[in-house]
Design goal:
- Helix 5 runs parallel beside helix 7.
- The longest helix has 17 residues.
- The termini are far apart.
- The chain has 4 domains: 127 residues, Jelly Rolls, CATH 2.60.120; 106 residues, Sandwich (Immunoglobulin-like), CATH 2.60.40.2550; 271 residues, TIM Barrel, CATH 3.20.20.80; 78 residues, Immunoglobulin-like (Sandwich), CATH 2.60.40.
- The chain has 10 helices and 36 strands.
- The chain is globular.
- Strand 22, helix 2 and strand 23 form a beta-alpha-beta unit.
- By secondary structure, the chain is of the alpha+beta class.
């Protein structure tokens, strides 16, 4: 079993930079006692938190948490002065005794809010639970938002947990952001340079010199490509001057023999000092292998030789009776949490459906991992058993390998993706994250990525489009996105009636808008959450919500040929508006414009088609959209959360 990081992915130290300046925490070692039994400068519930002079890592004291009530959720905190625009590392040494519960345990966090007291964001490192010796917990913030007026550092144990924990030597220090980050644009799938006449390797480089007092004119890029077998240099060059903070390094691969190559890109001062180096490894394969499922250069899933738009739902346990209901819809796949047996995979295949097969829980020490998995060797053995059993099954579409596990597990997550590729080169690996701002850092861990915004009822539906757009931007449109829109009622996860009453299922208009927002902002597939939740909704009958969801699925399926088209559309411009998500596609000379209102308010979308369409038709109603007197512009009135799908026929 290989335990090294995969050679075909980004191999970069993800260090955020050197610490800058003094620690910002008062009484960070809990040496001074306060009058209420807590350490001085810290505020919390004295019946849960206290200063402990018997158990400490260093010095004379530590912060102690002792709680036997799983409903009690309290933090011990202090205000800290963080500077907007700066980045910080937060850390603490933590020890635990019998910390139990489903969450990740004892940890720390920093949060920021505006002048109005509303939460803006924060940094939440993964904690420790069970019984552990002193363990260093740390994380790094993004840049503190300019609107952050109040910042709070907290030591705490996650919700619905009990036991005893201690903290010592808490720290917040400013850090410099790494001056170089990069994104492998091409190839976009498994870093494989394929075919006799391949596209060049293209790496997009992002320079961030804010923390170094440098300008672009002070730096240059030096790059080289090496054969990994003998470390011989096969190509090299410089980019000087650096034209912009976002620029591409391009390496021609046509003359390269089959094998593995590393592309090293170094950002350096003009005097020669290296500031940062990124290393990408690619495989040159001149003869394209036969594959059952893969991602093409346009981020489409190619399944058995044909473009395929995944349209599915999350499931729990699969039964034939429920499959019969599901198979009568226009969904084409499902992701069952309960790993299906061969018999059930056969049942799924018999109904013409595909499976995203889960191996996401097979990380020892994490919540949900089977108790008999206690090592990386155990993880590999279990994954191998699933892959060998199902990699040739006709129902298999992809592997689901990570559900929101944290970035501090990067090496382990990357290794699982490598195992999947080695054991089954025929199917991609999909992950889903809530960490939408870190999707580029997770690059070594996936072939396809999704995020799961569930905004209803407490956030606007526009969050669906925002998540997809954030990912598309971060990944430069160069990775497949299978998004996870909300169709469930949060009430199914509440324990008391008052909390249940405060939730509701999303409406048809909200679900439809959120689905199309995701597609308009770059999603190449949708896996809705979730089948099992709509079946147990305490307020909305299953039949009622399922009918709405089926209608949305039917509309998306009917548009799949359009969504999968890679033809270049003619010049059609839609005036940007924050409430509007737009997608323009072209199929066999017909242009399609998809307009999505992501707000509850009405609006007017303005279309400019300089080539002058003969007509603009809305197929759903059969009605034309009137062109203005100039023959090239049109105004489309849109209700709140409206989706308008328009067809532009051109003059011949």
């Amino acid at each position: 079993m290989k335990k090294n990081l995969p050679a075909s992915v980004l191999f970069v130290v993800l260090c955020m930079g050197a610490a800058l300046g003094e620690d910002l925490v008062k009484n960070a070692g809990f040496e001074q006692a306060g009058a209420d039994g807590l350490p001085s400068d810290w505020h919390g519930a004295p019946n849960v938190y206290s200063r402990d002079s018997a158990e400490k890592r260093s010095g004379e004291g530590a912060l102690k948490y002792a709680n036997a009530d799983s409903t009690a959720y309290v933090l011990c905190a202090q205000q800290v002065a963080l500077t907007p625009g700066k980045m910080y590392e937060i850390s603490a040494w933590v020890k635990t005794q019998d910390i139990t519960g489903e969450e990740s345990g004892a940890t720390l966090c920093v949060e920021y809010s505006g002048a109005d007291g509303k939460w803006i964001g924060g940094c939440y490192p993964r904690g420790v639970k069970g019984t552990t010796d002193w363990t260093l917990i740390k994380g790094a913030t993004g840049r503190i938002p300019p609107e952050a007026a109040h910042c709070t550092l907290s030591c705490y144990v996650r919700r619905e947990m009990t036991g005893t924990a201690w903290w010592d030597d808490v720290s917040i220090t400013p850090i410099a952001e790494r001056p170089l980050s990069s994104m492998l644009m091409s190839p976009n799938y498994r870093n494989q340079v394929l075919g006799p006449d391949p596209e060049p390797v293209r790496v997009r480089c992002f320079t961030t010199l804010t923390d170094y007092g440098l300008q672009l004119s002070d730096v240059l890029f030096a790059w080289r490509a090496l054969n990994t077998a003998d470390q011989s240099v096969v190509a090299q060059g410089e980019l000087d001057p650096v034209p912009a903070a976002e620029t591409d390094i391009v390496v021609d691969c046509k003359a390269l023999k089959d094998g593995r190559y590393t592309v090293e890109i170094t950002l350096q001062r003009r005097g020669g000092e290296a500031l940062a180096t990124d290393i990408w490894t690619v495989s040159r394969i001149s003869e394209i292998p036969e594959r059952k499922a893969y991602i093409d250069a346009h981020n489409r899933l190619i399944l058995h030789g044909e473009p395929f738009f995944p349209l599915g739902m999350y499931w729990g346990t699969v039964t034939p009776e429920q499959l019969d209901i599901y198979a009568q819809s226009d969904f084409n796949c499902l992701m069952p949490y309960g790993a299906p047996t061969k018999e059930m995979m056969d049942e799924i295949h018999a109904r013409g459906l595909k499976v995203l097969y889960t191996v996401k829980d097979l990380y020892y020490g994490t919540s949900g991992c089977p108790a008999d998995i206690q090592s990386a060797e155990d993880e590999y053995a279990r994954i191998k058993s699933y892959v060998e059993q199902f990699r040739d099954h006709p129902a298999l579409m992809a592997w689901y390998i990570n559900d929101e596990l944290p970035l501090d597990m990067l090496d382990r997550l990357s290794l699982h993706r490598q195992w999947i590729e080695e054991l089954d080169p025929h199917h991609p690996a999909w992950v889903v994250l809530y960490q939408v701002d870190q999707v580029r850092a997770y690059l070594p861990t996936y072939d396809v990525i999704g995020t799961d915004p569930y905004p209803i009822p407490h956030s606007p539906p526009s969050k669906a489009g925002e998540y997809a757009r954030t990912m598309t931007t971060a990944l430069c449109g160069s990775r497949a996105l299978w998004q996870v829109p909300q169709v469930f009622n949060w009430a199914t996860y509440q324990k008391n009636e008052a909390d249940k009453a405060a939730k509701r299922a999303p409406t048809f208009e909200e679900m439809r808008s959120m689905a199309w927002q995701s597609i308009a902002e770059g999603a190449n597939g949708l896996v809705f959450y979730s089948w099992f939740d709509i079946r147990r909704d305490p307020a909305t009958p299953f039949e009622e919500q399922w009918a709405k969801i089926k209608t949305i699925a039917r509309e998306i399926k009917e548009m799949a040929p359009v969504l999968l088209s890679v033809e270049s559309p003619p010049d059609v411009v839609i005036e940007p508006a924050p409430w509007l998500n737009v997608l323009v596609k072209n199929v066999a000379g017909t242009t399609w414009v998809i307009l999505v209102n992501n707000s509850q308010d009405t609006g007017t979308a303005k279309i400019l088609a300089p080539d002058g369409p003969a007509a603009i038709i809305e197929p759903a109603s059969g009605q034309p959209v009137p062109l203005a007197a100039d023959g090239v512009t049109a105004a489309v009135e849109m209700k709140g959360l409206d989706v308008r799908i328009l067809k532009l026929d051109w003059k011949r």
